[in-house]
């Protein structure tokens, strides 16, 4: 149990059966009346953000989020198959649970599976991945004054904006959080 007076950024709590992560919190002590804690909470399962206020003495259940390293094996229709790298157990997750998380992840790469009390709610890809370009238009020298980009399709099928000098066959380092090109490898 954790009281509202002990909130910290990043803490996960359970409120009315939902799991929330604290994005921001602020202790407010008005000149008149009782103190309260103003928070910005993110619903971990739906992704929605809400603002709530609590009395500092209110207590909430601490929600333990389990992150397990698993290997992404293959996609079979709407099911994505993963294998535990320690026990070799396999699980299949629906496309609605996975979402866009595997946009930049190739088969046989490791990801983190997030669950609460055995219920899987999201997949976290590695922060950076290296992917080869399968298709992009040629860039022409002298087209721009500064920093122009063009679309390129990588081996997972995702589209990334890249500088003009990048060509088909190049291997890129991509940030999976933003989908941005970082560098050539």
UniProtKB/TrEMBL annotation:
Cellular component GO terms held in the UniProt record: cytosol
SUPFAM superfamilies: Nucleic acid-binding proteins, Translation proteins SH3-like domain
Xref: SMART domains: EFP, Elong-fact-P_C
Pathway of action: Protein biosynthesis; polypeptide chain elongation
Domain (Elongation factor P C-terminal) ranges: 129-184
Gene3D superfamilies, per database record: 2.30.30.30, Nucleic acid-binding proteins
Highest taxon listed in the record's lineage: Bacteria
InterPro entries according to UniProt: Elong-fact-P_C, NA-bd_OB-fold, Rib_uL2_dom2, Transl_elong_fac_P/YeiP, Transl_elong_KOW-like, Transl_elong_P/YeiP_cen, Transl_elong_P/YeiP_CS, Transl_elongation_fac_P
Claim: Protein biosynthesis is one of the keywords in the record: yes
GO molecular function, one term: translation elongation factor activity
GO biological process terms, semicolon-separated: peptide biosynthetic process
Cellular localisation: Cytoplasm
CDD domains found in the cross-reference section: S1_EF-P_repeat_1, S1_EF-P_repeat_2
Record keywords, A-Z: Cytoplasm, Elongation factor, Protein biosynthesis
Span of domain Translation elongation factor P/YeiP central: 67-121
Physiological role: Involved in peptide bond synthesis. Stimulates efficient translation and peptide-bond synthesis on native or reconstituted 70S ribosomes in vitro. Probably functions indirectly by altering the affinity of the ribosome for aminoacyl-tRNA, thus increasing their reactivity as acceptors for peptidyl transferase.
Family label: Belongs to the elongation factor P family.
PANTHER family: ELONGATION FACTOR P, ELONGATION FACTOR P (EF-P) FAMILY PROTEIN
Entries under NCBIfam families matching the protein: efp (TIGR00038), PRK00529.1 (NF001810)
Protein name, per record: Elongation factor P
Organism of derivation: Mediterraneibacter faecis
The organism's taxonomic lineage, starting at the top: Bacteria, Bacillati, Bacillota, Clostridia, Lachnospirales
Gene name tied to this protein: efp
